[in-house]
Fold this protein.
Amino acid sequence: MHDTRLLATKLVSTPYDLSLKLHYIEFDIFQDITQYRRLIRRLIYLTTTRPDIAFVVQQLSQHVSQPRVVHYRAAIRILQYVKSFSAKGLFYEHKTDLSLSGFADSDWASCPTTRQYVTGYTIFLGSSLVSWKSKKQSTVSRSSCEAEYRTLAALTYEVQWLHTLFTELNIKFHKPTSLYCDNRSAVYLAHNPTFHECTKHIEIDSHLIVRK
């Protein structure tokens, strides 16, 4: 805040203005690229404890090679939001249920330039958030079902890694991990392996999430 001279800036209630179209290239180029990159680098570090800004930070980090003025203004809005809610953070209870649960979501073909989608998931240990991610994928999905299914696969990989980590710490889970998705087609595909014959265009590693 001091580096960007925003100690006395106004406060905002959200980290991102949904009316902004960050993909437009008609906007003026931001001249101080070094300043933009330094700001984005610090915001990426801040996402370690502030998952509420993870999505917009990953959106802005895609434009570090040639940022526009609109991108810098969006980054400044994040700082205004952080100042508004500087006390926000992650709270971990000392007594919590030893069970994992994960939530997955994606926005299909959200990038108007490449039509790639963004993967997002969160994993809770009891009521405490322990892992989260928001990332633009390198592949293009032909349907929202495929995008959601790939996101479930990414969530499953992370859950497997957490199970391995907790096993090394001699912590055992007595309940199966629950995975949640708001796409019915992706849920049906995960539950019924017979549907896989209709989805050969999806990479085989995505079928990791089949229920056993």
Notes: The domain at 100-209 is CATH 3.30.420.10 (Nucleotidyltransferase; domain 5). Residues 44 and 57 are 7 Å apart (CA to CA). The helical segments are 33-46, 54-60, 69-84, 144-168, 184-191.
